[in-house]
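testing teh design pipeline on a random one, pls ignore if ur not involved
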């Protein structure tokens, strides 16, 4: 069971971090960066750091956890005489009461003025309550004026008044009285050994309970999804993070009955909260990936390639946003001031925006290209003077595989501004050429050639007859130029090349049979005897044109619509001698036999 072992490792590693985090020096440095930079003992004029509620609470807990009750008593609102005689005992009892029965959010303010609370005077702060049996006491801080250090925060005398009674109730109900003395007496990082043993033993218990809960939820869900959702087995990819989430929650619930000391409990809750955020973010990450992949495949199946590419870009942006959100939540759990961080992020964002204009331009350029569906992955396009197949449209650039098989990366901002020619979107392909005939060709001879070329184009099944244009365009010094323009009814370039080749070969036979020829380059020097035009063939061509003229059937400026209709499809293509035509014919015969 690979998921089981992987989740066990995650849970053990996460909970094992409680040990170093609860140590006095390391936990302050790792989880409370502000406290590490400005520890309570060094803030302001007060050497004990009592100028803020945070400094008072954590200063007392750290001193009491270290056993320095005389220092811890300095955080209590007591007269000097009472502090001298009863301060150590009161600090010890308060520490026990806070560790065993405190219920609340241990996040005191870091500001000297504290936090404004409803129905609470401005010089007081209520942090939570301490309850044991029928005894309840409220943990309250009060701001007083010290003659030596000025305004400081202390644990109020109202709170201290009920501590002895609360302490007696806690001692009577403590489970330590039923455990071996050595596991109660010895401590590690301010927490008794029996609680450490209990935390470790709860890991396999929480993992087993989490696995049972996961099966109880997953079996009916997968049974339903098997009938409703294609590709439902991909949902099993979230089993690992789901197990980590369930196991952490179960462990946290069970650990709440151990009565851990307040400071280690605070850091334990922070660590488990981080694990919960990580596992929830993990689940959300995989669900988003599965959902967007499904939407993208559906768009591609319906022929919306641009939407599919846009979904791929959107998936990357959403994943980045989810990661950033999880990072901010974790930083908030660890005690960072997120309002300051967000303000700094806004200012930094402006600076980055000015410094990364090209990056932002490329990002929005990619979104606009994908949104307009000008190009899609797999299209053959011409970007300026470069032609290639689009392989990917990313956050920064569009990658194109050129005809030379090189990989060309074009910034999306450039793609959005230049002229992009999508060759894959052609519904038909243009065939255009100029034929140079010999200057000795007579007008009637030329009329014959023009009409026969038109006849070939009108007769070819792969040529669009409405767009055929064969015209005499120029009487040059070395040739008589005829322009040939038509559209080949195909989107495949290989088929277009084959049709073009067939047309050129037929035109070559026509020109040869008509008695004329193609003009040689004007710079060529004739050194041999030239018989000129073949008189018999030329006379036959002229005679044919004379017959057309006498019969009023001269096909100029073009053939009649009836002639064009009669020509349509009269040319065999591929030619009868073509191996491909014979292969197709044999395949048709075989199919007939099979039938």
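output:
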């Amino acid at each position: 069971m690979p998921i089981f072992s992987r989740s066990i490792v995650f849970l053990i590693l996460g909970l094992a971090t409680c040990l170093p985090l609860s140590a006095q020096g390391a936990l302050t440095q790792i989880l409370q960066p502000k406290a590490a930079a400005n520890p309570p003992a060094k803030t302001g004029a007060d050497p004990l750091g009592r100028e803020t509620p945070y400094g008072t609470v954590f200063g007392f807990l750290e001193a009491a956890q270290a056993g320095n009750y005389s220092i811890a008593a300095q955080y209590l609102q007591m007269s000097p005489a009472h502090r001298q005689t009863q301060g150590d005992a009161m600090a010890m009892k308060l520490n026990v009461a806070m560790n065993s029965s405190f219920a609340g959010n241990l996040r005191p303010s870091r500001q000297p003025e504290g936090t404004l609370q409803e129905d609470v005077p401005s010089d007081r702060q209520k942090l939570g309550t301490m309850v044991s049996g029928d005894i309840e006491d409220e943990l309250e801080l009060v701001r007083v004026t010290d003659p030596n250090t000025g305004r400081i925060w202390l644990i109020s005398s109202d709170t201290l008044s009920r501590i002895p009674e609360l302490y007696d109730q806690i001692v009577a109900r403590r489970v330590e009285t039923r455990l071996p003395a050595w596991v109660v007496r010895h401590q590690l990082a301010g927490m008794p050994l029996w609680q450490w043993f209990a935390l470790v033993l709860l890991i396999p218990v929480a993992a087993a309970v989490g696995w049972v809960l996961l099966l109880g939820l997953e079996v009916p869900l997968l049974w339903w999804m098997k009938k409703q959702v294609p590709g439902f087995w991909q949902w099993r990819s979230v089993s690992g993070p789901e197990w980590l989430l369930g196991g952490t929650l179960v462990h946290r619930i069970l650990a709440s009955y151990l009565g851990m000391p307040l400071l280690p409990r605070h850091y334990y809750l922070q660590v488990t909260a981080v694990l919960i955020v990580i596992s929830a973010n993990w689940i959300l990450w995989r669900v988003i990936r599965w959902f967007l992949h499904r939407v993208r495949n559906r768009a591609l199946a319906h022929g919306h390639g641009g939407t599919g590419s846009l979904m791929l870009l959107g998936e990357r942006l959403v994943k980045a946003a989810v990661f950033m959100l999880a990072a901010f939540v974790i930083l908030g759990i660890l005690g960072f001031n997120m309002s300051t961080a967000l303000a700094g992020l806004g200012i930094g964002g402006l600076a980055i925006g000015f410094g990364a204009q090209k990056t932002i331009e490329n990002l929005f350029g990619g979104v606009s290209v994908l949104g307009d569906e000008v190009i899609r992955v797999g299209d053959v396009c011409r970007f300026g003077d470069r032609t290639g197949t689009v392989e990917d449209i990313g956050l920064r650039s569009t990658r194109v595989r050129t005809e030379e098989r090189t990989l060309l990366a074009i910034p999306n901002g450039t793609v959005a501004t230049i002229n992009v020619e999508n060759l894959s979107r052609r519904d038909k392909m243009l065939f255009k050429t100029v034929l140079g005939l010999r200057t000795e060709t007579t007008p009637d001879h030329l009329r014959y050639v023009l009409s026969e070329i038109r006849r070939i184009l009108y007769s070819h099944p792969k040529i669009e007859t409405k767009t055929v244009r064969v015209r005499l365009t120029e009487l040059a010094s070395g040739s008589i130029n005829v322009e040939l323009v038509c559209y080949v009814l195909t989107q495949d370039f290989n088929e277009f090349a084959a049709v073009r080749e067939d047309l050129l070969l037929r035109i070559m036979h026509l020109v040869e049979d008509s008695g004329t020829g193609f003009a040689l380059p004007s710079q060529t020097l004739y050194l041999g005897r030239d018989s000129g035009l073949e008189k018999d063939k030329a006379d036959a061509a002229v005679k044919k044109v004379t017959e057309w003229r006498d019969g009023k059937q001269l096909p100029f400026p073009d053939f009649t619509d009836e002639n064009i209709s009669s020509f349509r499809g009269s040319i065999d293509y591929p030619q009868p001698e073509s191996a491909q035509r014979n292969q197709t014919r044999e395949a048709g015969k075989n199919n007939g036999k099979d039938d």
